[in-house]
Amino acid sequence: MIHEDIKETYHVTREVGTGNYGSVRIVAKRNFMDKRFALKSIHRDRVSSDQDIKMVEKELDILMNIDHPNIIEF
Q1: Which domain holds residue 26?
Q2: Alpha helix locations (H) across 26-73?
Q3: Domains held by the chain: number
Q4: Is residue 39, in this structure, part of any structural domain at all?
Q5: What span, in angstroms and rounded, lies between the C-alpha atoms of 49 and 56?
Q6: Per the domain annotation, does 1 fall within a domain?
Q7: Which CATH number fits the domain that encloses residue 61?
Q8: Residue 73, domain member (yes or no)
Q9: Which ranges in 1-74 belong to alpha helices (H)?
Q10: Which of 14, 38, 39, 46 stands 20 to 30 A from 26 (CA)?
């Protein structure tokens, strides 16, 4: 978990998608503005039940194990 303001590291631009738990936005690292990334934010207040937590853990597990040229490493 990040406890600092994400806007200090990234320039956050437009939203490209939303879901039950959060949203995805296009960002650029402030010291490397030429490259764009997708940043997924999860609203902590929407993850409250054990089932919600298991869904987030499953997604994190998938992201940590996926190997695809268009998906950045987690």
Answers
A1: 6-65
A2: 50-65
A3: 1
A4: yes
A5: 11
A6: no
A7: 3.30.200.20
A8: no
A9: 50-65
A10: 46
Instruction: Give the pLDDT confidence of 50-61 residue by residue, as tens digits.
Output: 998 898 889 889
In the structure encoding, which two tokens stand for residue 31, read together? Answer: 């010291």
Among 37, 44, 42, 43, residue whose Cα is nearest residue 14: 37
Distance CA 5, CA 19 (A): 22
With 0-12 CB in 10 A as exposed, 13-18 as middle and 19+ as buried, what is 52?
A: middle
Q: Assign residue 54 a region (left: φ > 0; alpha: ψ between -120 and 50; beta: otherwise).
A: alpha
Does this model's pTM top 0.85? My answer is no
Burial 5-28 (b: 16+ CB within 10 A, else e): eeeeebeeeeeeeeeebbeebebb
Within the chain, what is the greatest distance between any pair of CA atoms?
40
**Residue 30 is assigned to a structural domain of this protein:** yes
Tens of pLDDT, residue by residue over 13-38, are 999 999 888 899 999 988 887 888 88
